[in-house]
Amino acid sequence: MPELPVPELLALDRAHVWHPYAPMPGRTDPLVVDSASGVRLRLAEPVHGRRELIDGMSSWWSALHGYNHPVLNEAARGQLERMSHVMFGGLTHEPAVRLAQRLVEITPEPLRHVFLSDSGSVSVEVAVKMCLQYWRSAGRPAKRRLLTWRGGYHGDTWQPMSVCDPDGGMHQLWSGVLPEQIFADAPPAGYDAYDESYADHLRDMVARHADETAAVIVEPVVQNAGGMRFHSPAYLRVLREACDEHGVLLVFDEIATGFGRTGTLFAAGHAGVAPDVMCLGKALTGGYLSMAATLCTPEVAEGISRGEFPVLAHGPTFMANPLAASIAHASIGLLLDQDWALEVKRIESALREGLAPAAELPGVTGVRVLGAIGVVQLDHPVDLAAATAAAVRAGVWLRPFRDLVYVMPPFVMGDEDLGTVCEAVLAAAVAG
């Protein structure tokens, strides 16, 4: 395909391409990326004097190994020579089987069954459908609502929107249209901030609503796009015990936290508990292709199979895409074949040191770090254009939102680049 001059490309983009969380037609021009390698994005033309930017976002938290990785490239090439896609209804293939086996091996016991889909939001849709159908199959169709806590975010499709924060989230537009779910108070902020009175609140909510609740769904340890808030892992144990006591399923949305991001392979590991259903996505394929997974226990799967309608009625066209599955299997192998925990700890230390000065900046209300996640919170909404420009001038790509300037770097980022990223976060916080 012949290359378009950048002005022409941007004009066509503005006229035809609808970007996420943006109006149509667009009002600001996005940066044009020409290529990417390692932890760097190469722009089609210089912006604020920069032709290359260090990616502090891991492409919305998915590119664990950076870009253009030879191991993942080889997995893609090898699979392309065999087949890029085949329908999964009535057929199967080795990439999907091997990926499912690997996911079962590395996720908490007793998650043993894997449903592969297209995206993280769809994996949550599948999880909700599993839970609702489980109770219908058990003869308890009244258990049809979901319980969660405020401050969460689970995706932009229908059921996931219903369990995002109904007030502070991005989906207030749909209030009164979405299914009405049950919301506990937001967990107290802070990884070490355990509050027994809040634990009692969770126990009470599960107990009071058990007869109408199919499942509790939460993001374990880190509430991500809902506000980048950390909470005590002990609340996950409280939820596990309460759900077991009152006959409610427990779903962990690990789409953003899975594959080592918080310092344990899955955030559930901080609490030492397992959910009945787990959602995975984002980093599953190392940022190469869209793929997600919903895992469940034998109890959930067998419960559905005993029902009057004994199948899970969900079948995306590109479910278990062999190209994505091959890359995902290679990406997991690449992660586990190294001391990933040591690398995350290294990044955590660098972020703690590099972001600490932000606490003294005017307008900053807090700085927090967990694993390979660093967050600077402001006392006002970020000026996105000004903050982004400041980061670009520092040689870094960041994407602040709401009142947050944050970073989730690829695990392969070196110390010098981490230092540059931290400087860019500070610059963005001042400008924004």
From TrEMBL:
Organism for this UniProt entry: Streptomyces qinzhouensis
Cofactor requirements of the protein: pyridoxal 5'-phosphate
A Gene Ontology biological process term: biotin biosynthetic process
PANTHER family: ADENOSYLMETHIONINE-8-AMINO-7-OXONONANOATE AMINOTRANSFERASE
Pfam short name (any one): Aminotran_3
Catalyses which reaction(s): (8S)-8-amino-7-oxononanoate + S-adenosyl-L-methionine = S-adenosyl-4-methylsulfanyl-2-oxobutanoate + (7R,8S)-7,8-diammoniononanoate
Role description: Catalyzes the transfer of the alpha-amino group from S-adenosyl-L-methionine (SAM) to 7-keto-8-aminopelargonic acid (KAPA) to form 7,8-diaminopelargonic acid (DAPA). It is the only aminotransferase known to utilize SAM as an amino donor.
Residues given in the record as substrate binding sites: W60, Y153, K282, G315, R399
Location of this chain's protein in the cell: Cytoplasm
Residues with N6-(pyridoxal phosphate)lysine modification: K282
Gene name of the record: bioA
GO molecular function: adenosylmethionine-8-amino-7-oxononanoate transaminase activity; pyridoxal phosphate binding
This enzyme's EC code(s): 2.6.1.62
Major subcellular location class: cytoplasm
Site residues (Participates in the substrate recognition with KAPA and in a stacking interaction with the adenine ring of SAM), renumbered to this chain: Y21
Protein name as annotated: Adenosylmethionine-8-amino-7-oxononanoate aminotransferase
Pathway(s) this gene product operates in, as recorded in its UniProt entry: Cofactor biosynthesis; biotin biosynthesis; 7,8-diaminononanoate from 8-amino-7-oxononanoate (SAM route): step 1/1
